[in-house]
Amino acid sequence: MHCQFCQKGKKLVDFKETASLTRILSAGGKIKSRTKTGLCAQHQRNATKAVKRARYMGLLPYTKE
Length: 65
Known about the structure:
Blueprint: H1 4-8, H2 18-22, H3 34-37, H4 41-57
């Protein structure tokens, strides 16, 4: 499996793109691991920071109910 952000040619993961970030979250709201998401190491780190920023800004929930 290849990194979805590398295939699109994106260098950074934007925290405002909540649709792409929700695919990284599990059903309980936790951030999935690299092996489950298929992201490369750089994009996994960027995606983790983006999810945390989106949660802080109120764009994503901390937990799913």
